[in-house]
Each structure stands twice: as C-alpha cells, then as structure tokens.
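Practice problem: predict the structure.
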Amino acid sequence: MRVWIVFLLLTSFSACRTGSTLILPEKESVETNVWAGLSADKIYEKAVQYVRDEKPQHALDGFRLLADQYPNHLRYIDAVLSMGKIYTDQFREYENGIRMFRKVTELYPDSSVTAQAYFMMGFISANYTEKEEDARKYYNLFLQKFPDHELAGSVRFELDNLGLNADDILKLNLQDSLDVSTDSTSRQ
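Answer:
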C-alpha cells in the first residue's frame, strides 16, 4: 500500500513538471460568473470589497474587468490606480504597477490622481527596481506639473536622497538635527 502511495505522489509531482521547469499554479482567480450581470458600479464595489477582504487577485480581476469593459466609466481611473497598487503592494510586480500608473498619466495628464501616479512611479523606480534615472525623470515630471501638490515636499526629499539607503538618510537627518541644535545653542 505504501508503495502505491509513494508512486502516486511521485507521478503527480512529475506530472507538474516539464523538462526542468516546475509549473506553478496560476494566481487564484475568481470565476467569471461572479461578475456576470453586474453593472460597472457593482463590479467596482465588489472589487473594493475584495481589497478590504484581503483577496487581491479577486480585486484585480474586478478592476481589470471594469477597465476592459467600461473604459468611459467614472471609476475607470480608480480601477487602473487600484490595479497599480495591487500589482505593486500585493504581488510585487513592479513593472506591471508602473505600467498601470503610466496609463493614468497618459490618459489623464492634468488630473489630481496623475500626481499620485507620478509619485508612485518615481517611488517604485527608486526603491524597488533601483532605476534611479527613471525615478529622477518621474519625480521631475511630478514637480513640473504639480509644484504645489501636497506630495511635492516628499518628492523633493526623494530627489535629494536618491541612491541612499534608509540608514544613510537617517544618519544625515540625525546630523542635520545636531547641526541645527548646535547652531541655535551657539547663538545664545
């Protein structure tokens, strides 16, 4: 009996292999009938609920469906932004995240959400893909288009510290703090 169990386990394992490449299951996905008959608004609401329920692949499916089937819908831009965030935060698929954020900047160049998209592309490029030149390009585009945006200070900070790791930034900030306290003490 043990021999058969071992044989079944080995054959089922080898059936999942082709050559030397292990075939992994695709990301869990919701069956399409979950979305059948739903309006664009309901698809968006359901996708947002999947985000809250921490089911990112289900949410991604819904946002993608909305974006594909309702490109003129009011929530289209929110769906594309959400896909960018899911790709980046949940799946660590940074290039896909950047692709979604870039789509926002191309379709809605003057929208307030475009500022967020430029920031995210810069941040991902600087901190995850380590493409400093891309990060600099996105941050500079942000500052050209949105110099007074609430994230402008963060963008300037990011530009000033491109290429530095968190420890280096902490040391610089600590040194700056010590310099400021020394300057104010010496004036008294």
